[in-house]
Write a structure and sequence with these properties.
- The protein has helices spanning 44-51, 73-78, 96-103, 109-122, 124-128, 139-151, 169-186, 197-203, 221-226, 228-234, and strands at 7-16, 19-28, 33-37, 57-63, 66-67, 81-84, 157-161, 189-193, 206-211, 214-220.
- By secondary structure, the chain is of the alpha/beta class.
- The strands form two sheets. A six-stranded mixed beta sheet has the order 6-7-8-3-9-10, with helices on both faces.
- Helix 3 (96-103) packs parallel to helix 6 (139-151).
- It binds adenosine-5'-triphosphate (ATP) and magnesium ion.
- The site of magnesium ion has 4 residues, from helix 1.
Length: 238
């Protein structure tokens, strides 16, 4: 088990060609799962993309106290960040094993073999289907391939963008349970965007609410789950 990564985001702003989306974001991860909630268009995906070095940003981002260089996705991977983007982006004509091996592109071959074994231990469903073409798997199985592939680069900070999107409730439970196990047993810090608010908060340790590009609430997951504001806005409580 590695020491959990500590991410600190201080005064981050980001957007697209002059159009500001995120303003003055402050977040900090703790060991375990941190969830980011918020309505469509709030800027959740933009935040993960800015942290992963895929788009420009202003402000300070520290990983274990040392600055992460902005807009350098390869440097981010080398520092232990992995992002599972919305939409999975698997190679549909390649097998599960081949997809996973591609995830370990920066990893020496011997280490890659070890990580593949770990991935199949974490995702037993994928072990049974190791030689199946990724494009022929169910939505939930494909999402598992996407997460397992991200784990192949040995991340210390795993970022997931709506992993439960489009999955049946049982598959959501199975996937989130695996993510929770990875966080607890392997010491991987998880930063996860979710619209499945109740389920996400029930596995998370901490949560932030992002609305119109700003953080409007930050608290322990249990406190957010119990808060009237969250219940009214996100859990459909009267
Ligand atoms: N490539 C882009 N170019 C220009 N604007 C963009 C781009 N991607 C996103 N946006 C805009 O940035 C804002 C935030 O989008 P973002 O995808 O981060 O929201 P989100 O919180 O992830 O929403 P959702 O829950 O629907 O996934 C939106 O107004 C969106 O239209
Ligand atoms: Mg999004």
């Amino acid at each position: 088990m590695s020491t959990p990564a500590h991410l600190q985001v201080k005064g981050l702003s980001a957007g697209y060609s002059g159009f500001a989306v995120l303003r003055d974001i402050h977040i900090e991860t703790q060991p375990g799962i941190t969830v980011i909630l918020g309505p469509n268009g709030a800027g959740k995906t933009t935040l993960l993309r800015a942290l992963a070095g895929l788009i420009a940003r202003q402000g300070e981002v520290l990983l274990d106290g040392a600055p992460l260089s902005p807009q350098d996705a390869t440097a981010c991977v080398r520092r232990g960040l992995a992002l599972v983007a919305e939409g999975r982006q698997l190679f549909p004509q390649m097998s599960v094993t081949e997809n996973l091996e591609l995830g370990g592109w920066l990893t020496p071959a011997s280490e890659r073999k070890h990580r593949l074994a770990q991935a199949f231990e974490d995702f037993p469903r994928l072990k049974e289907r190791a030689s199946q073409l990724a494009g022929t798997m169910s939505g939930g199985e494909q999402q598992m391939v996407a997460v397992a592939r991200a784990m192949m680069c040995g991340p210390r900070l795993l970022m997931l963008d709506e992993p439960s999107l489009g999955l049946a409730p049982r598959m959501v439970d199975e996937l989130l349970a695996i993510v929770q196990r990875i966080a607890r047993q392997q010491g991987v810090t998880v930063l996860m965007v979710e619209q499945n608010v109740r389920k996400a908060l029930s596995v998370a340790d901490r949560g932030y609410v992002l609305e119109r590009g700003r953080i409007v609430a930050a608290d322990g997951a249990a406190q957010l789950l119990a808060s009237d504001t969250i219940r009214r806005a996100y859990l459909g409580a009267a």
